């Protein structure tokens, strides 16, 4: 049994008081910053009313004298990380698709066989994980996962006969209008622009990832190249449907190249997933992911250096 002496109780009381004082000071500083943000947006509220609302929250209390109170202030320490959930959904969709595009073991159909996984692994899990990242305060992960969740839902809806997307491009609408619409200049040329702007989006993610880790850098770099190649595939298809049959061999080369770059994405993604899962169970051996946050200085660090130098 653990016994507590009077001296220890006094020490614990002083420690708890110092933590509470620190908590109050931190809340006061946060209150000042939020009040400035509110005033900058034109919201009229007096300082007294704002402090009454914001500072009404009391700090959490210990369940036992030995409990680490600092862990209670950070709710993220009491929640699991949603990152591997979204990453797993992304990889289960992209890995088979990359093999389909490369035509391994006779695979083909532009990944239509994986339509169900696009809805549930790609769409559902990635958006769910993205929203959980939002709750954890991770803006970059939230935007990335939700945007790719939307990408997989878009891909699945395009391939789903129920939505009959190709019928809008079919020359003679009938029971096979879906297939007819896909094999038109209008549909393939339009699809190419979708992949172009997915490449633009991934290029932005690539630049942002320079502050994260090497795995993310290679993932977004290979995705950017792959989406550019997929756009080229669709535009080359448009040229073939317009009558230029000499471009058919180029389609196969571009498609295999796109699949190869997506496969590189998957390799880096599976490595990251494995590394995160090992960390989650505190495995004795862990894989490095190449942290870059210390290599590329943040704007906050630069401002502090400028302020200290002034």
From TrEMBL:
> What is this protein's record name?
Protein alcS
Is this entry keyworded Transmembrane helix?
yes
CC annotations in GO: plasma membrane
Q: Mark the transmembrane ranges.
A: 85-104, 116-135, 142-163, 183-207, 214-238, 258-279
The GO terms this record gives for MF are:
acetate transmembrane transporter activity
* Record's keyword terms, sorted: Membrane, Transmembrane, Transmembrane helix
One Pfam family cited in the UniProt record for this chain: Gpr1_Fun34_YaaH
Note the InterPro entries from the entry.
AceTr, Gpr1/Fun34/SatP-like
Q: Which domain of life is it from?
A: Eukaryota
> Keyword Transmembrane on this protein?
yes
* Family statement: Belongs to the acetate uptake transporter (AceTr) (TC 2.A.96) family.
Chain positions covered by the region annotation Disordered: 1-23
Q: Any idea where this protein resides? A: Membrane
Give the bilayer topology.
Multi-pass membrane protein
Q: Where is the composition biased (Basic and acidic residues)?
A: 7-20
């Amino acid at each position: 049994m653990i016994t507590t002496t009077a001296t220890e109780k006094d020490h614990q009381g002083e420690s708890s008081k110092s933590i509470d004082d620190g908590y109050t000071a931190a809340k006061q500083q946060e209150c000042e910053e939020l009040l400035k943000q509110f005033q900058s947006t034109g919201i009229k509220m007096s300082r007294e009313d704002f402090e009454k609302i914001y500072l009404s929250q009391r700090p959490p209390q210990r369940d036992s004298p030995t409990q680490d109170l600092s862990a209670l202030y950070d709710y993220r320490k009491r929640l699991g990380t949603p990152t591997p959930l979204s990453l797993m959904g992304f990889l289960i969709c992209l890995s088979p698709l990359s093999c389909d595009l490369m035509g391994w073991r006779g695979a083909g159909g532009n990944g239509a066989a994986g339509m169900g996984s696009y809805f549930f692994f790609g769409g559902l899990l990635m958006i769910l994980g993205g929203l959980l990242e939002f709750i954890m305060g991770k803006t970059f992960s939230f935007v990335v996962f939700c945007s790719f969740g939307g990408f997989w839902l878009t891909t699945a809806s395009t391939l789903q006969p129920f939505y009959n997307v190709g019928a809008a491009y079919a020359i003679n609408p009938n029971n096979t209008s879906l297939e007819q619409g896909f094999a038109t200049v209008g549909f393939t040329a339009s699809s190419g622009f979708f992949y172009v702007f997915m490449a633009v989006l991934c290029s932005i993610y690539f630049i942002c990832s320079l502050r994260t880790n090497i795995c993310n850098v290679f993932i977004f770099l290979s995705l950017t190249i792959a989406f550019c190649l997929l756009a080229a595939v669709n535009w080359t298809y448009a040229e073939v449907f317009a009558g230029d049959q000499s471009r058919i061999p180029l389609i196969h080369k571009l498609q295999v190249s796109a699949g190869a770059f997506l496969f590189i994405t998957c390799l880096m993604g599976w490595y990251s997933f494995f590394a995160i899962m090992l960390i989650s169970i505190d495995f004795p051996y862990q894989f490095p992911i190449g942290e870059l946050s210390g290599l590329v200085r943040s704007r906050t660090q630069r401002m502090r250096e400028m302020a200290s130098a002034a």
